Amino acid sequence: MTYCVALRLDRGLVFMSDTRTNAGVDNISSCRKMFNWSDGESSITLLTAGNLATTQAVVSLINERLKSPGERSPSILGQPSMFVVARMVGDLLKEEIARAGAGQMNADAGTFGATLILGGQVRGSAPRLFLIYPEGNFIEAGDDMPWFQSGETKYGRPILVRAFDPAMSFAAAVKLLMVSYDSTIKANLSVGLPLDLQIYETDSFQPGKTLRIEADDPQYHAISEGWSEALRAAFEQLPDVEL
After folding, report:
1. How far apart are CA 7 and CA 205, in angstroms?
2. Which pairs with CB-CB distance under 8 Å and at least 24 residues apart come from 25-29?
3. Residue 162: pLDDT above 90?
4. What is the C-alpha separation between 189 and 94, in angstroms, rounded?
5. DSSP string computed for 57-81
6. Cα–Cα distance between 159 and 57 in angstroms, integer?
7. Whose CA, among 8, 21, 193, 227, lies 20 to 30 Å from 34?
C-alpha cells in the first residue's frame, strides 16, 4: 500500500508521496512513486499507487516515448493540453493492466491494478490535476474537489477536509500534508517515511522545490510532536460527558 496526495492551490500544485512498498516485521522496502517531466513549455508530475510492476511499466513506457516519440508512441511533452496528457497516461495504464492480466485466469481483478494522480501545466492554460483509475478513465480536480488522494487515504483525509484552503501558502500546504501523513503513518504500517515532496508554481513550467523528507527530518518531527500535543490539549478542553 502507499499514500499519495496532490493539492490544487491558487498559486500552483503541491505533491507528496510516501516510498514504502512492502511492510512487515522484517520486510520493509522503499521505492520512488513520484515522477516529473518538463521541457520549458510544460511540466508534468505523476504519483503512483497500486501494483508496483504496473506503475513502473507505465513510467518506463512514458520514458521510452520521450526518447523516440512518433505517431504510434507520442510523448506526453509537447501536447496541447493536460487533458490530452491525462488521456494518454490513462490509455497506457489500461493497456498495461490488460497486458499483465492476459492469460491469468485465476488472478483477482485488482491484482495488477493501479491508480495515478497526474498534475501539471501546459503553456497557454492553467495548472490542472487529474485522478486516473485502473480502467483508464479519470476525473479532474475543481473548486468543489481541489485535491486528490490515492492509496491508504482514510487516516489522512480528515485534516484535509477540515483545514485545506486553496488560498493557503505553499509552506502551509506542506505543513498540512505533513500532518496528514503523520496521522496515516501512525495508524498504518504500510505507509512510511521517507516522503517525497514537490511544489509547482503556476506559470513556472518546471518543477519547483523538490525534497525528500527522511525519517530523521527535524521539521517533520516538530510538526508530528506539535500536532500530538495540540490534539491532547484540545481533547482536555472538551466538556466532560455526563454519565
Report:
1. 17
2. 28/192
3. yes
4. 29
5. HHHHHHHHHHHS--SSS--STT-S-
6. 33
7. 227
Confidence at residue 1, expressed as pLDDT on a 0 to 100 scale: 74
Which grid coordinates are listed for 229?
Answer: 500535543
Q: How far apart are CA 160 and CA 210, in angstroms?
A: 21
Residue type, 116: L
User: How far is 91 from 104, CA to CA, in rounded Å?
Assistant: 21
11-30 per-position pLDDT tens digit = 999 999 999 987 555 666 88
Closest CA to 13 of 133, 138, 128, 90: 128
Distance of CA 26 to the CA centre of its chain: 26
Grid cell in block for residue 192: 512510511
Distance in angstroms (rounded) separating the CA atoms of residues 56 and 168? 33
Residue type, 66: L
Residues in the chain: 243
Sequence-separated contacts (24+) of 67-75 with Cβ below 8 Å: none
Cα(22)–Cα(28) distance, rounded to whole angstroms?
5
Query: Smallest Cα–Cα separation from 75: which of 38, 125, 101?
Result: 38
Q: Prior bond to 127 cis, omega within 30?
A: no
Query: Which residue do the cell numbers 508512441 mark?
Result: 73
Backbone angles phi, psi at 111, to 5 degrees: -55, -45
Q: Closest by alpha carbon to 89, among 112, 55, 123, 49? A: 55
C-alpha cell at 165: 484552503
At residue 25, the pLDDT reads 55
Backbone angles phi, psi at 53, to 5 degrees: -65, -40
In sign, the C-alpha dihedral spanning 239, 178, 184, 221 is negative
- CA angle (62 as vertex; 85, 115 as ends), nearest 5: 70
pLDDT digits (tens, 9 = 90+) for 38-69: 999 999 999 999 999 999 999 999 999 999 88
